[in-house]
Write a structure and sequence with these properties.
The chain is mainly alpha-helical and 179 residues long. It is built from 6 helices and 2 strands, in the order αβααβααα. GO terms for molecular function: ferric iron binding; oxidoreductase activity, acting on metal ions.
């Protein structure tokens, strides 16, 4: 429920935009916690490289959550960032791995990024018809997420150009194939 709309948007369009952005806020909150979880639980070959690669992404994604929450507030709504809100908004599974190898975590993380980026692209398409300001915000964030997924995939790519776990449909299966 919004208390006001930004100039140029109807109350109905504002409600739609807020609903779309709320799903992205929950996805970003989940993603930054997942990234930190990986940071704490990655072991094995390339440990330090992956361990240190993850933290800047955690901070970037936390910043994205803040930007989305502030956009929701600027539209007159209340951003929902509690754990229960994330769980209620989820249409994805909780991250499946605990302590595991760098390749296993990166293959699973690649699947996480597949989902977040695809969802962002869907949100971008929906927002483009209603609110180009919110659309622009997500476009910039999605470009950076795609760049980080490239970093992840670069760790997983072999000399033939195959990416470990890419053909698998779940995080667990991708991790098992990458081990």
């Amino acid at each position: 429920m919004t208390t006001f709309s930004v100039p140029g948007l109807s109350a109905s369009d504002t409600e739609t935009v807020v609903a779309i952005l709320q799903k992205r806020l929950s996805a970003y909150n989940d993603l930054h916690l997942t990234l930190k979880h990986i940071h704490w639980n990655v072991v094995g070959r390339s440990f330090i490289a992956v361990h240190e690669m993850i933290d800047p992404q955690v901070e970037l994604v936390r910043g994205y959550a803040d930007e989305i929450a502030e956009r929701i507030a600027a539209m007159g709504a209340s951003p929902r960032g509690r754990v229960g809100d994330v769980v209620a908004d989820r249409d994805w599974d909780d991250y499946a791995l605990l302590r595991d190898t760098t390749n296993a975590h990166l293959a699973a993380l690649n699947k996480v990024y597949d989902g977040v980026i695809a969802s962002n692209r869907g949100a971008i398409a929906a927002l483009g018809e209603i609110d180009p300001v919110s659309e622009d915000l997500l476009i910039g964030e999605t470009g950076e997420l795609e760049k980080f997924q490239w970093f992840v995939r670069a760790h997983l790519e072999d000399e033939d150009g195959s990416i470990a776990g890419q053909r698998e449909s779940t995080e667990k299966a991708a991790a098992a194939q990458a081990r």
